[in-house]
Amino acid sequence: MYQSVWKFIGIGCSLLYREEDMYIGERGNNTQSGSHDYHAPSRIIFYANVAQDAILCWNIDTEMKPANVAIVAQDHNKLAYISDLKVIGDEVYVLVNQIPKFIYSRFDTNEYNYFIHR
């Protein structure tokens, strides 16, 4: 995913810098992410991690390696499928949908199926 501030692009569990395609490092196993955003004051990139039902973070002033990537929030019910993530001010917002229920179970039209968590 292209990030306009730092121009990072996520490739599987690694990060590449878009302009020079410079290898940054490894986030670790099961850390694939489709949504990222950058919090400039803290110099932290937040990741929506579907594989772990979690939000991960990494401070760009540290080496990109599994020991420097932290789980900020994890919930197998509330964060079951994070479809988007956005940093606004000092808050992280995530859009979650219930697509796993639709694919693997019964989709209940009487329940809320999209959520925004802050």
Automatic annotation (TrEMBL):
One of its GO terms (cellular component) is extracellular region. It comes from the Eukaryota. Keywords: Secreted, Signal. The keyword Signal applies. Pfam families: MRJP. The keyword Secreted applies. InterPro entries: 6-blade_b-propeller_TolB-like (IPR011042), MRJP/yellow-related (IPR017996). It is found in: Secreted. Transmembrane segments: none annotated. Belongs to the major royal jelly protein family. PANTHER family: L-DOPACHROME TAUTOMERASE YELLOW-F-RELATED, PROTEIN YELLOW-RELATED. This is Uncharacterized protein.
